Amino acid sequence: MLFPKELQCRYNLASSYLDTSSLQSSSSNFLTLLSRAKSIYSLQSFTPSTLVNIPQPYPLIIQSTYSSLTSISLKSQSYSTALSYVKTSMELSKKVDKEDYFNYNLAMRGVGKIEEVVEEMWGILGGERRVKPTKAIGGTVVTYCCVKYGTKYGANYVNNLFNGLRRYNGADVRLVCFTEDREGIDEDVEIVELPEKIFKRQRRDMCGWWYKAYIFSGAHNEELGESWEDGWKVYIDLDSVILGGLREMVEGVDRLGVLDTEGMVNEDRKGGFNSSVVVWGGGMDGIYDGLVDEFEKVGRVIYKFDHWFEMCALGVEGVSVLRGVREFMSCRDGIFNNGRDEEGLEEAVGVGIVTFPLRPKPHECEEEWVRAAWDED
């Protein structure tokens, strides 16, 4: 039978369109592949039992097609469709791969089933929620921190963050940078050395965002002192711009303050947490400790640090949504309620931080108010 060779050709064509981000053409060809496969093999649907009598590599091609259609649907933010595709892909897989787990997590969150998928992932990992945030006992002492790993962001990102914090929060503001390379960083920024490996059995291809977990480790409490261990900590992603004082934001937190994913262009989902800015008091060691020994296992089912963060913190008492933080792409034209002064800094009413999780990054922006706040003086 020569017909099945058509499936391989169709798969290659669809994959080439996907590689060039031609999503509609790719999706159309993948769907045609599935239709032709059903016709060739006289099938109503694809299940593990119906694929048994189909010669290799065509069962694998069919399964991979569903996986690819999942990715296309996620990119198009068609979460219900993505969930249907990824469930089929997982059903057809002899061993579910990490890409399907990653996509499943995204699709479930996209359709609003975050609690369900969190419990499901804990069941797979055989663990339980590990974070029990304690209330800060360090009074009003606030320490700011950031993570710089690798070369994605230069030292100027740390310095600009420090400048913004000092501009609006006082010259004596304390910033701690967790990094493996302090070259070029302002000498007044405290440095905590990031170890080359922060987890046992760490993969070489580990994404840099996992290093964020290290800020929650208790390993550096002695080095940073009581004001760190018992006081308030404010983590801020480096790709952020400071536009105002942050005291009110901190004072609005009971134990743990996070960003709400609803309304964020890079998230587009309800009920989730985003860790571009995090405020916490006392200790939250479980976020890091839960990964130390089990990172290899966690990394097979969880791709994003924020998904792990949600798994640890979702549902615990004392979680607050942070006020005064906006995402650039969701407010670039409307952040200033009452206009702005000549320097573009004074009229960002009620906004202390703007985050830039997507492109453009701060140094790429043409907006005057970003340029005014993004300096190295």
Q: Which CATH class of the largest domain applies here?
A: Alpha Beta
| CATH architecture assignment name of the largest domain | Alpha-Beta Complex
Q: Which sheet architecture does the biggest sheet show?
A: 7 strands, mixed
Alpha-beta classification? alpha/beta
Identify the CATH homologous superfamily of the largest domain.
Spore Coat Polysaccharide Biosynthesis Protein SpsA, Chain A
Distance between the termini: 72 Å
Global Rg: 24 Å
Number of helices: 16
Structural shape:
elongated
| CATH T-level fold name of the largest domain | Spore Coat Polysaccharide Biosynthesis Protein SpsA, Chain A
Question: How many structural domains in the coordinates?
Answer: 2
Number of strands: 10
InterPro entries: Nucleotide-diphossugar_trans (IPR029044)
Tell me what the structure shows.
This protein has about 375 residues and is α/β, with parallel strands linked by helices. It folds into two domains: about 110 residues, Alpha Horseshoe (Serine Threonine Protein Phosphatase 5, Tetratricopeptide repeat), CATH 1.25.40.10; about 230 residues, Spore Coat Polysaccharide Biosynthesis Protein SpsA, Chain A. The chain is about 40% helix and about 10% strand. It has a seven-stranded mixed beta sheet, sandwiched between helices. β1, α8 and β2 form a beta-alpha-beta unit. α1 runs parallel beside α4 and α5 packs antiparallel against α6. The termini are far apart.
